[in-house]
Please model this.
Amino acid sequence: MRPRMLSSRARMQVKILVSAFLSIAMLITGGLFLSANAGVRSVAGIAVADLNVTATGDVVIGHAGVLTDLVRTGLTPALAPRGITVKSVGGNSLAIARSIRGGSLPADLFVSADANVNQLLTGDANGNKVRWFGAFARNAFVVLYSPNSQYRAEFDKAQRGEQPWYEPLKRPGVKVARSNPDDDPDGYYALFVAQLAEKFSGEAGLKQQILGDDRNPA
Model:
């Protein structure tokens, strides 16, 4: 089914929304970043999907969970005075993209934690859901540890730079949580970071030792 034509008012609403989104993103992140090292940094991308703006001015945004605060406390109140109501649907970027492609999520905008995820919505094979997209922000990949961990002293040493960050993760009994690489860019970023650590440390098998198999529900 061909996407329906939008009224001039609806088109203007989408233009205003994209402009506001990028402006707020610049204020929060400190600037626009159009490229980054995928092995260390994640790059967020905004895409205009098949447009489904209704006469009431509602705009549906499917977005990565990491961008929830940006959408709900930054963008939503900024657009309210213009009569535009934002409906926020957050989740894992790849899962959100598949929902848009399959039709269960009729999003007007898609904001991913990795601009490359937009490829799932681009082209004839993917229903031409995305017509254009651009990278607008970047973020560092970090390791978080519990202050109640029995290995806190080890993690503190790594934080101070007294030993590599991955050394505490090699300790027996340390439980590591990471997201599913099939649903969430953070999941495969974790694998990339571990691969880089193995390469530059020269420790064969380091990635397997700290993360296990790529798909590892445990």
